[in-house]
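Hi Y.,

Following your request, here is the sequence exactly as I used it, all 94 residues.
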Amino acid sequence: MNKAQFVELVQKSGSYKTKIEAETAIKAFTEAVTAALVARKEVSLVGFGNFAATLQKGKSGTVPGTNKTYTTEDKMVPKFKPGKGLKDSVAGAE
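Below is the corresponding structure, written out as tokens. Let me know if you'd prefer a different format.
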């Protein structure tokens, strides 16, 4: 599903009158979640899931077929853990 199709789905699901209203709602949601994760806060939506920023440890390894090694830095990454309601809905869908 691309963005335009998703905007149409949100418009129908949320009873928005125009696609612009639906797109504004999507943009507000994504910006709010992004701002919370940048501030290292967790966003919990009961029944849907949790968004959190977690530390991903750096790794080191070798490039296959060569003797070159690499090392990555520690970094913060976004994580999503689905809630029971979302898991049950997806598992029941065919």
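The mean pLDDT is 94.

Thanks again,
Q.
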